[in-house]
Amino acid sequence: MVDRDYFGTDSEAQELIGNAILQYDMSFDHIDSSTLAGVEYRDASSDDSSFYGDAAPIDIANPDYSGAPSSLNVYMGNDQDYETKSVFLTQNLSFYDRFVVTAGVRNDSLDLSSTDITGVTESDDFSETSVRGALTYIVNDEISTYISQVESVAPPSIGVKPERGEQYTRRPA
């Protein structure tokens, strides 16, 4: 006989996202330019609970599955609400069909709220600017090499501290 327990989660989420992007392309002799400017709005909420319950022991030599538990205990729960408003600008410059320089900047305003299982609510507002940049060399139509650096900020899964990211990438040909 082996002891057993039930574990599970129940989650629900809603999200509304909208964005508008303008693109302007232009060529100057051996330089091609592409400029992107945009805004983004996101309103999201999620509700999740984690629970457990006791189950009858099972005979592993002759298992008899007993079905769902009669009662469950919630041990973790979280309600997340957030609204983000973002503006961004990205510039791509291509030189002689071989080199591509990309530079971008983005500002995110985050309004965050989190309520835990005990009913305690935390909230905070943030405004952060992140940047990105890359240099690409096009060897031929099938092979390119590049180096890039990207920063990011996003609403958290739990709590009100934003998740931040930073990535450096180098890809040789």
UniProtKB/TrEMBL annotation:
It is a multi-pass membrane protein. It comes from the Bacteria. The lineage of its organism: Bacteria, Pseudomonadati, Pseudomonadota, Gammaproteobacteria, Salinisphaerales. Pfam families: TonB_dep_Rec_b-barrel. The keyword Signal applies. It is found in: Cell outer membrane. Transmembrane segments: none annotated. Its main location: membrane. PANTHER family: FERRICHROME IRON RECEPTOR-RELATED (PTHR32552), FERRICHROME OUTER MEMBRANE TRANSPORTER_PHAGE RECEPTOR (PTHR32552:SF68). GO terms for cellular component: cell outer membrane. This is TonB dependent outer membrane ferrichrome-iron receptor protein. Residues 22-158 form the TonB-dependent receptor-like beta-barrel domain. GO terms for molecular function: siderophore uptake transmembrane transporter activity. The keyword Transport applies. Keywords: Cell outer membrane, Ion transport, Iron, Iron transport, Membrane, Receptor, Signal, TonB box, Transmembrane, Transmembrane beta strand, Transport. It comes from Salinisphaera shabanensis E1L3A. SUPFAM superfamilies: Porins.
